[in-house]
Amino acid sequence: MGFFSLDTLFTIAAAIFTLGILILIHELGHFLVARMVGIRVERFSIGMPPRFISVQNKVDGLWTKVFVPWFMQKMFNAEIFEFRIPRKHPEASDTEYSLSWTPFGGYVKMSGMIDESMDGEIKGKPWEFTSKKRWQQLLTISGGVIMNVILAFVIFTGIVYTTGMDEPVPGTFVGSLVTNDERPEFPAAEAGILENDQIVSINGQNVTEWEELTEIVQNMPGETIAIEWLSNGIRYADSLHVVKETVPTAEGNIDIGMIGIGRVLSHKDLGVIESIQYGAKSTYLFGTLMARGFWEMVSGKTDMDQVGGPVLIAKMAGEMARRGWIDVFYFMAIISVNLAFINILPIPGLDGGHFLIISIEGIIRRPLPIKAKIIIQQVGMLFLLGLVLFITIQDIARL
Question: Domain holding 257: CATH number?
Answer without folding.
Answer: 2.30.42.10
